[in-house]
Design brief:
The chain has about 220 residues and is of the alpha/beta class. It has a single domain, classed as Rossmann fold. It has a six-stranded mixed β-sheet. Helix 1 packs parallel to helix 2 and helix 3 crosses helix 4. The longest helix has 18 residues. This is Broad specificity phosphatase PhoE. InterPro entries: His_Pase_superF_clade-1 (IPR013078), His_PPase_superfam (IPR029033), PGM_Phosphatase (IPR050275).
Length: about 220
């Protein structure tokens, strides 16, 4: 049986001076540092046998995919299934104003953290991303494929692949900016998962998706 690898690449740092939870809101682009992160990930994957590059429709993901595709002379195709997760609080700053957990009007959105009740269910994210992964694996069979997407869909898909509960502590996600989570398949079967952070040297002072600074 052939060996195929599907790399799940998280986008780089976003220009987000208001530090909003931007979610699926349009127009959020990479910052200058995010562009440098994307280039480092493109360089990291330059010698890989990549024959397919697909991206979330979000601008930040498309921009992150660009140097990866360019290194292999490939066009970027868009896959709606790997878009950002839905979130009730997008467009707001978490912990501030109408997004505060201490506001009783928001308590209904925090009733079930296992689902989670404030956004797209984890299982739905896993289902759509896993379908996109297997489609990419079939198209790139015997080679490597790249899907550029977002932190939470990557993380819950990895936890599902490793047989772990989908509920987790967001502070402990191993999915840094422009990181590469690689799923290696033998035939249609997942053989192992590996992880790399090509842009780690640029993390100091970077801002993550919720507006908080990375350590």
């Amino acid at each position: 049986m052939t060996t195929t690898t599907v790399h799940l690449v998280r986008h780089g740092e976003v220009h987000n001076p208001e530090r909003l939870l931007y979610g699926r809101l349009p127009g959020y682009r990479l910052s200058e540092r995010g562009q440098a992160m994307a280039q480092r990930t493109g360089d990291h994957l330059a010698d890989s046998d990549i024959t397919l590059v697909r991206s979330s429709p979000m601008l930040r993901a498309q921009q992150t995919a660009a140097p990866i595709a360019a290194a292999h002379g490939l066009e970027i195709t868009t896959d709606q299934r790997i878009t950002e997760s839905g979130n009730r609080f997008e467009g707001q700053r978490m912990g501030y104003g109408s997004a505060k957990l201490s506001d009783p009007r928001n308590w209904r959105w925090f009733l079930n953290p296992l689902r989670p009740s404030w956004g797209e269910p984890y299982r739905e994210q896993v289902a759509r991303v896993t379908a996109a992964v297997h489609d990419a694996r079939a198209v790139a069979e015997g080679h490597e494929a790249v899907l550029v997407l977002h932190q939470l869909p990557i993380w819950v898909t990895r936890r599902s692949a490793e047989g772990k509960p989908l509920f987790h502590d967001p502070r402990r996600r191993q999915c840094g900016l422009c990181s590469v989570t690689s799923l290696r398949f033998v035939g249609p079967h997942l053989a192992d998962v590996s992880y790399a952070e090509p842009a780690a040297e640029l993390y100091a002072g970077a801002v993550d998706a919720t507006g908080g600074k990375l350590t």
